[in-house]
Specification:
Blueprint: H1 2-12, H2 18-50, H3 54-82, H4 84-102, H5 108-124, H6 128-138, H7 143-151, H8 153-172, H9 174-195, H10 225-237, H11 241-256, H12 258-271, H13 276-301, H14 306-323, H15 331-342, H16 349-360, H17 362-394, H18 398-415, H19 434-445
Helix pairs in contact: 2-3, 2-6, 2-7, 2-8, 2-9, 2-12, 3-4, 3-5, 3-6, 3-10, 3-17, 4-5, 4-9, 6-7, 6-17, 7-13, 7-16, 8-9, 8-13, 10-17, 11-12, 11-16, 11-17, 11-18, 12-13, 12-17, 13-15, 13-16, 14-16, 14-18, 16-17, 17-18
C-alpha cells in the first residue's frame, strides 16, 4: 500500500517510481558493501585476539568471495522465481544473522562457517546481479546510467562504512563495529519491506522510458528449473568466445579490487606504520573517486564502444597497482594512487553488463551476467587468499600487487578481442527450426 500510494503521488509530479526502486536497491547494495568490506578492517584485531595468522583469516574470506560469486547465477533464478523483494529480504536477514552470531565466536571453524559460508551466501544474493536485474526490469531508457549508479553503491558503502568501522574498532573493539553493521542492515530491511516491488507493473507503471504497461512475467512454476536453468544458460553461453572474455576479464577485475585492495589494503598500510583509520580514509577517498568514475562509466557505456572502455579501465588500473610500491606510502603518494585507481575501481561493471545484454539478450542477461560475476568473485577469492599467503610466507603483500597489475594489462588486451556483433534476440537458444539456428550462429560468431 505504501509503494502504490507513493508511486501515484510521484507520478502526479512526473517522477517515475523506477527511481525509488533504484534508490532502495542502492541502499541495500550499499549496506551489503559495508558487510563485505568490514573484514578488511578487522584482520589485525582478529590476529591479536585469537592468534590466527593472515593466511588463515584470508582463507575464510576467500570462501566468502567465492560463494558471493557462485550464488549469483542462482540468485538471478531465485529472483525470477520468488521475486526481487523476497530475495533481498532473505539476504539481509541471512547476513545480519551471520554477523550477529560471529560476535560470540571463539574458534577458527566458526569464522569459516559464519564469515565464509553464511555471509558469503547472503551477500551473494544481493551481488551485482541484483543491480543488473533491477536496471533491466525497471529501465528501458538510461539503463547504463542505472547500472552505473548501482555499481557505485559498493564504492559509496566503502566511503560510508570503512572509516567509521576503523574508528569503532580502534576505540570500542571489532564487536562494536559489527554491531553497527547489523543495525544498519535492520534499518534497510524495513525500507525494502515498505518500498521495494518486483516490477513496474506491480505499481501500474511502464518501464522508465517506455509507453505501455507490460505485465510482470509470471514465476517459473517448475521448482527444478530454479536450479537447472542457470546451468543450462551456462552451457549455452560457454559456447561463445564473448562469454569467456567477459568471464576472464571479470576474474581479473575481482582479483585486483575486492580480493586484494578491499581486503588487504588496510593491513598493507599497517606494514608501513600507517594507522588503520588513515588507511581506511584512503579507501574512502578511493570510494569518492570511484563513485564519480562508475557513474561516468555508465554514461559513457550508453555512448561509446564498451570494448574500448574496458581496455582503458583495465590498463589504467594495472598501471596504478604496479606503481603503488613507488608511492613510498606517504600521504601524497597514496592520494595519487587513490585518484588513479579509484576512478576505475568498479567502472568496468557498466560496460560488462551492456556487452552481456547485447550479446545474450534481455531475457537471459541477468543469468549470464551472474556467471560472469562468478568469475569476478573467484578472482577475488584467488587474490584474497593469495595475498594472505604472500604476507604469511614472504612478510610482504607487494608480490600480490605486482601480479594483479600485470593481470590487468592482460585483461585490457583481452577486452579488444571481442568481435563486434549485432545484438541477439531475447532467447539464447532461439525458437525451434531456422530461427534457433540463426540465434546459435550469432552467438558463436560473437
Amino acid at each position: 500500500m505504501v509503494a502504490s500510494a507513493l508511486a501515484a503521488s510521484l507520478s502526479r509530479r512526473q517522477i517515475h517510481y523506477s527511481w525509488v526502486a533504484l534508490a532502495v536497491t542502492f541502499l541495500t547494495m550499499l549496506v551489503m558493501a559495508g558487510a563485505m568490506g568490514a573484514p578488511g578492517v578487522l584482520i589485525a584485531p582478529l590476529r591479536r585476539e585469537f592468534g590466527w595468522n593472515t593466511e588463515q583469516i584470508s582463507s575464510a574470506l576467500a570462501i566468502r568471495f567465492a560463494l558471493y560469486g557462485l550464488i549469483g547465477p542462482f540468485a538471478a533464478a531465485f529472483m525470477n522465481y520468488f521475486g526481487v523483494r523476497r530475495v533481498m529480504l532473505a539476504a539481509l536477514a541471512l547476513v545480519a544473522s551471520g554477523l550477529s552470531v560471529s560476535l560470540f565466536m571463539t574458534q577458527f571453524w566458526q569464522l569459516v562457517l559464519l564469515w565464509g559460508l553464511v555471509v558469503g551466501v547472503g551477500t551473494g544474493l544481493t551481488a551485482m546481479v541484483l543491480g543488473a536485474t533491477v536496471a533491466t526490469r525497471w529501465f528501458s531508457r538510461r539503463r547504463g546510467l542505472a547500472v552505473g549508479l548501482l555499481s557505485a553503491s559498493s564504492a559509496t558503502g566503502q566511503l560510508v562504512f570503512m572509516p567509521l568501522m576503523a574508528s569503532l574498532t580502534e576505540h570500542h573493539g571489532w564487536r562494536m563495529a559489527l554491531t553497527f553493521i547489523c543495525i544498519a542492515i535492520g534499518v534497510v530491511a524495513v525500507v525494502v519491506l515498505a518500498l521495494m516491488r518486483n516490477h513496474p507493473a506491480d505499481v501500474q507503471l511502464p518501464l522508465y522510458g517506455a509507453d505501455e504497461v507490460v505485465s510482470a512475467p509470471g514465476p517459473v512454476r517448475d521448482l527444478r528449473q530454479l536450479f537447472f536453468t542457470p546451468l543450462r544458460v551456462l552451457k549455452e553461453a560457454a559456447q561463445t568466445w564473448t562469454f569467456w572474455v567477459l568471464f576472464m576479464t571479470f576474474f581479473i577485475c575481482g582479483a585486483s579490487t575486492n580480493g586484494l585492495v578491499q581486503t588487504h589494503f588496510v593491513s598493507l598500510c599497517g606494514d608501513y606504520n600507517i594507522a588503520a583509520t588513515t588507511a581506511a580514509g584512503v579507501l574512502a577517498l578511493m570510494g569518492i573517486f570511484d563513485f564519480f568514475g562508475t557513474v561516468g562509466s555508465g554514461w559513457l557505456s550508453d555512448r561509446f564502444d564498451n570494448r574500448w572502455l574496458l581496455f582503458w579501465y583495465y590498463g589504467l588500473r594495472g598501471i596504478s597497482l604496479v606503481l603503488l610500491p613507488f608511492s613510498h606510502f606517504t600521504v601524497l603518494g597514496l592520494s595519487g594512487f587513490a585518484l588513479l585507481y579509484g576512478l576505475d575501481w568498479i567502472a568496468t561493471v557498466p560496460p560488462t553488463v551492456k556487452l552481456t545484454a547485447q550479446r545474450f539478450g534481455p531475457d537471459k542477461a541477468n543469468v549470464v551476467f551472474g556467471w560472469v560475476f562468478a568469475g569476478h568473485q573467484l578472482g577475488a577469492a584467488f587474490a584474497a587468499y593469495g595475498a594472505g599467503w604472500t604476507r604469511t610466507h614472504f612478510a610482504s603483500y607487494l608480490p600480490a600487487f605486482f601480479i594483479a597489475g600485470c593481470l590487468c594489462v592482460i585483461g585490457a588486451l583481452m577486452a579488444l578481442s571481442i568481435v563486434p556483433a549485432r545484438p541477439v534476440g531475447p532467447n539464447l537458444r532461439g525458437n525451434a527450426g531456422a530461427s534457433g539456428s540463426r540465434a546459435r550462429t550469432a552467438l558463436q560468431r560473437s
